[in-house]
Amino acid sequence: MNLEVLNVDDDKMVLFIHEKMMIHSEFSNSPKSFENGYLTLTYISENKSEDKKFVIFLDVNMPNLDGWDFMDELEKRELDSYCYIFVVTSSIDSSDKDRAATYDAAIGFVEKPLSIDRLKELKKTKELLPFFD
């Protein structure tokens, strides 16, 4: 089983920082970044396979297709079974955490910005353990 790491955020600087953190923490050697959810959905549709999972670090607050709409669309297109999603936000609103928990693909809630230590912790997430053992 392969694991592909995707970053989805409308802020180019956040994408750049998150990519560097992922490489330095050995979470991923080659994370891919997308500036909007539509591009990400297309990428997943075109690259999905039975032996691949996508770990998506998904910003909630984006124009056009926000994180919630992205997850709704993922479910509608039946792509959610290929994905593990970490909802990434600067929000500390507990209702966001509750809402994230309603999505099967959402396996965690992470506050911005990502750090090397936090990424090392996330490797121990139950769903991801088989990929990092």
Automatic annotation (TrEMBL):
<protein>
    <submittedName>
        <fullName>Response regulator</fullName>
    </submittedName>
</protein>
<keyword id="KW-0597">Phosphoprotein</keyword>
<feature type="domain" description="Response regulatory">
    <location>
        <begin position="4"/>
        <end position="127"/>
    </location>
</feature>
<feature type="modified residue" description="4-aspartylphosphate">
    <location>
        <position position="59"/>
    </location>
</feature>
<dbReference type="InterPro" id="IPR052893">
    <property type="entry name" value="TCS_response_regulator"/>
</dbReference>
<dbReference type="InterPro" id="IPR001789">
    <property type="entry name" value="Sig_transdc_resp-reg_receiver"/>
</dbReference>
<dbReference type="InterPro" id="IPR011006">
    <property type="entry name" value="CheY-like_superfamily"/>
</dbReference>
<dbReference type="Pfam" id="PF00072">
    <property type="entry name" value="Response_reg"/>
</dbReference>
